[in-house]
Amino acid sequence: MSEPEAKDLLAERREKLDRLRESGTDPFPHDFPDREEIGAVVEAHGGLGAGEETDQVHTVAGRVVGKRGHGKVVFLDLRDQTGTIQVLAGSDRLPEESFEALDLVDLGDFVGATGRALATKRGELSLEASDWRMLAKSLRPPPDKFHGLEDVETRHRRRELDLIANEATREVFRVRTRTIAEIRRQLDDRGFFEVETPVLQPLYGGALARPFTTHHNALDREFYLRIATELYLKRCVVGGIEKVYEIGKDFRNEGVSPKHNPEFTMLEWYEAYADYEKTAADLEHLVAGVAEAVLGTTVVERDGESIDLAPPWERVTLRDAIFEVTGIDIEKERSLEGLAGAIGVEPEAGIGWGKLVDDLFSKRVEPTFVRPTFVIDYPVELSPFAKDHRSKEGVVERWEAFVAGMEIANSFTELNDPDEQRRRFEQQAAELAGGDEEAQPYDESFVEALEQGMPPTGGVGLGIDRLVMVLSGAPSVREVVLFPAMRD
After folding, report:
1. 268 CB-contact burial (10 Å; exposed 0-12 / middle 13-18 / buried 19+)
2. What is the CATH number of domain 3-141?
């Protein structure tokens, strides 16, 4: 559409708005009481045969997604979040002024209507309007006349247009809502206690990531948007909340990609007296249960492949996973120079051996895990909050869960030895001072909490956005976040 044509359309809608007001009609009334959901009306009369009429009167409201005129009859298709219904507005049923005012209705307007239910001769369920009312005049035309909005950039920047135009988008966010609700139900049923921890933190921690920084004027101090909820939740375990979880936003000042958004939603849970073997079993049953509740099946389709989320999931060590794909044995290449040589890269300033292992795994190995897989037993350098493996040197009891080529969850047998935690904090602080912006800063308050005593504990972080990507088949995190971060 050319710019002059667009201006003409906007001017035409403004002119209709003025005519409504001149006629004494409020184009933006305060409410519309006693309406019924369209889905309920459709369900109540789903058995009507072609040409069958009833004496049952209903009042509905919704956005006009279709308008057709045939002489003395106007057909409006109204849609709310539960469904769509046709409103049949005839000059023989409506007062003359009310029928003529239908000329002022455009696609995208919100309209309320009252009428008796019937099926047209073609068998389409309709309400024969005895009254109608403008509820909100749309001053801009809908995207592509509701036939679909395909431009990805516009869909992500103007999500309201995407939701208006695309049923598939609305379904993705219905899946997201049901997913979160089912996760809560399962954890609540298992006796977990939901809490809320600070988003603004005086010291960030719980992950290896670069934070967003802000300044609190009244306290005159720097704060950080949290990168994880881990350290506060483990302090809850110290305090006696033995099963605790939080679903909330985390923020990491990192690049964007199909799998990364600077703000994202995480579930973290911690259970006293559990370890990473128990959390693995719990996670695979949680995910399968969510899929069954939300989709009615544990099988999802992605890139033309069927993926079954039912347990048990495959398990492989990080060392074996890297060796199988790359031929590099990280247990033999324990120096930065040796590993860099094996990979064929030059060591970069501020990049340690652990970071190089992580980069090698994430770029070369992670995309190969299509079926649900736990990668277990990580080098201690990558896991400052995980407990040393009970029988293997140099690794910790940690797993990451992968589905459809991406990580969806992370878990530790949590480190609860305060002296060892202090030593690892010191090592991380040295790496931070050496230029690694994603290293973990030293947190004395957390060490002091551990000195109060924390029982053996298993913890899990599950990415809600990525789980929804798996369940919905979405190719990018931007498809499952309502308003993703975008460049100017």
Report:
1. buried
2. 2.40.50.140
Query: Edge-to-edge, what's the strand order for the sheet holding 263-272?
Result: 193-194, 243-251, 263-272, 457-463, 406-413, 395-403, 373-379, 314-317
Taking alpha carbons only, the member of 391, 385, 394 closest to residue 416 is 385
Q: What is the CATH number of domain 165-313+371-479?
A: 3.30.930.10
**For the packed helices 230-238 and 444-451, what is the interaxial angle rounded to 10 degrees?**
20
The whole-model pTM stands at 0.92
| Burial (CB count within 10 angstroms: exposed 0-12, middle 13-18, buried 19+), residue 318 | buried
Q: How far apart are CA 367 and CA 402, in angstroms?
A: 9
Tell me the C-alpha to C-alpha distance, in Å, between residue 304 and each of 23, 152, 309, 465: 56, 21, 16, 21
Nearest to 375 by CA among 388, 356, 362: 362
User: CA–CA distance from 31 to each of 67, 127, 129 (Å)?
Assistant: 23, 21, 19
Asked if residue 77 lies in contact with residue 66, where contact means CB atoms within 8 angstroms, the answer is yes
Listed in sequence order, the residues at least 6 apart from 183 whose beta carbon sits closer than 8 Å to its beta carbon are 247, 267, 286, 290, 462, 464
Question: How long a stretch of residues is the chain?
Answer: 488
- Read off the pLDDT of residues 34-89 as tens digits, 9 standing for 90 and up: 999 999 999 999 899 999 999 999 999 999 999 998 789 999 999 999 999 999 99
Give phi and psi for 270, each to the nearest 5. Answer: -135, 135
Phi, psi for 415 (deg, rounded to 5): -70, 125
Going by the DSSP 8-state scheme, the letter that residue 361 receives in this structure is I
Please say whether the beta carbons of 27 and 137 come within 8 A: yes
Q: Where are the domains of the chain?
A: 3-141, 165-313+371-479
